[in-house]
Amino acid sequence: MLDEIKERLEAEIEKLSHELNVELPDRISKAVELGDLKENAEYKSALERQQFVQARIEHLSSRLSELSKIDVTSMPADRVGFGSRVTILVKGMDEEMTFTLVAGDFMDLDGGQVSMASPIGKGLKGARKGEEVTIQLPVGERVYEVKELVTLPQQLGVADED
Prior knowledge:
Layout: H1 2-33, H2 41-68, E1 85-90, E2 95-102, E3 113-115, H3 119-124, E4 132-137, E5 140-150, H4 152-155
Helix pairs in contact: 1-2
């Protein structure tokens, strides 16, 4: 999972770097050729995009650096945390959901991922298999039971599965 996230970040950084170093200078150059820069919408647009791309590259680089500092061997192998694949039962509704907890930047709802910063992510953090947790959601309070749990250390083979 960490490698997949790192690859996505590196791919986006590479794409944005190409835009910053090749495409935007060309757009800016063409806009300068149009004349008066004070009222040149293309020029202003290109400069704004350039600033955005620079900021995004800095943000992605920072996230990449943070990911490289994660020590999976120090993560609890029996509690819900970053990277955990969790199956929960919604008590009272007999509905099961399975998802992986990820950082908000890397969330893919269609891919079955939930942010650690979401109410469900925060509420489940630290829970063990078999535990019930009560979480306050925008639609009201819900009680969930952790039915299955595979932590990131277990997925990467640095911890034993139950």
